[in-house]
## 1
Amino acid sequence: MLKRSWHDERGFSLIFVAIGLVAFVAATTLAIDVGMFMTARAQAQNSADAGALAGATALAVNSFTDRSAGGPAVQNAITAAKANIVMATEVSVQPGDVTFPLDSGGQPNLIQVVVFRTADRGNPLATLMGRFFGVETADVQATATAQVAPANAMTCVKPFMIPDKWLERTTESGAPSGPWTTTSEFNAYDTHGGSLEMPDVYVGAEDVAHYTGYTVANDVGTQLVLRGGTGDQINPGFYYSWKMPGDVGGDFYRENIENCNTSIVTWGTPIIQEPGDKVGPTIQGIEALIAKDPGAYWDSTCKCVMGSTFGTSPRVFPIPLYDPRYYADGKATGRVADFRVANFLGFFADHTSGNRVYGVITNVVGLVAPNAGPAPAGAFPMAIRLVK
């Protein structure tokens, strides 16, 4: 009897089944926790990405130089990162986790954000099944870096343009003869096309050391009144309509003021003036645009738009700036009105009155178009993108 029991193998199958079940359960529980960790890691990266982009946006729109713990870049980065929860729990991100490294060229245009769900921060991930094997928590963290750099292209530009800023007529010593104001007039030639002895001076954004045009540091918050241009006069507030890509006539001009034309416009692009009186359609388009976000207003304290129901108010838009010297040179040599994009200006449409548009110069975010060439160092708009 004992001999037969010793050689009876029928019970071993139960042992193998039990061992297999244990292995299967262990693998299943491991898969559950691994899947949770992978999801948490992806969510943590989303949180870090959101923080880096929000911080970069604040650098571009609020203040490029304020990098203090209480400044808009750091605070916006923290707020955005925490708003993106990881496995139903807020991440830990402190002012010290938001840093501003230099880029490969030594420029201070990066912002880096690190987010945590770790034991050291008191918010580790709790395992679902690992606790049965003595592993109760796990750590997850993520890092993201965004860049704020001069933009080489814009979209959603409006179908009217104004001249870039210049230095008023110079004296014999080369110094400006007076301050540039929003009522100044660019003059380089007399009425017969002859060069003036002391012409007004325009230097483009590619020469950042001598650039005379609009800059964020000097001009954000400046009030600007736009009105239809007359004749050949080059005045800061005189706008000229231009023929945008995809123009099909009819209400196209007005609709591209009220809405966004997604065509990409780059520096140096020649633009053709739209013939005809466009004052009426311009005012109609601006009023329709204002009606989309009626509660938005300009706050002179923060130099920003407040009260908007949008992330960025549609009442903030880029206006192409044309090169006043290029235009004046063309007119002096008998060329038909010829314009060239010199920069882009951010503008907040406040209200209209009669045939005038009242607004404020503001920051604006641009694009990095891969085939547009490098952006000029003096670009007014900044582009924001994740780089790591």
## 2
Amino acid sequence: MKILGWISWLLLVIGGLNWGLIGLVNINLVSMLFGAGSGIERIVYIIVGAAAVLSLFCCKKSCSSGSCK
């Protein structure tokens, strides 16, 4: 489970950097790399979204045990 949490964190960082680029300079790195509207681009967004959901559940679990204080 530890490696899954690390991969999830890494995907969230990549997604956050992409959104930062979109907000700052209107550059979508994912669409530049995989093509705008491509199936691969959609899969990347789904995987990053799944990583966010997984992180929410992991954070909730660790916070309830008192480890995030």
## 3
Amino acid sequence: MDIDALSTGLVAAVESHAQGLGLFDAVNGHEPIGSAAPGNGITFAVWYDAIDPAPLDSGLAAGSGLITMTGRLYTPANQQPYDAIDPAVWSATVKLMAALALDFDLGGLVRNIDLLGAFGPGLSAKAGYVTTTADNTQLRVMTVTIPCIVNDLWPQAAT
């Protein structure tokens, strides 16, 4: 397992799917902490959230892992018409989730995206609001949980 290739490859694979959809004004491989609000379009960002063992898929020699990434779609909540904000963000979220489901091994980087939640929350999204720290703008967001199962993430041995 090439951990360095995996660490850059997973985020890059999700970014590539997001960019390929042509729905986002910007796509970032990091959480935009302290950034100014995006323009009136939709911005997407993805970053690592958690690494956990996947005990049911681990053996005596190697442990499999559950790597969870967070993706977030952002758009200003104060743009007109207000009634168009949620449908646009929702539609982009569903299209992104569909693209991830269609390439559920992310080009062979992972065994699979845990689409249905065999090891915890599956591929899912939750709506909310975030306020930027740079300019205090309220954003409408959809936060996407992207759980990935990776075989043999780390070696295991008794001493």
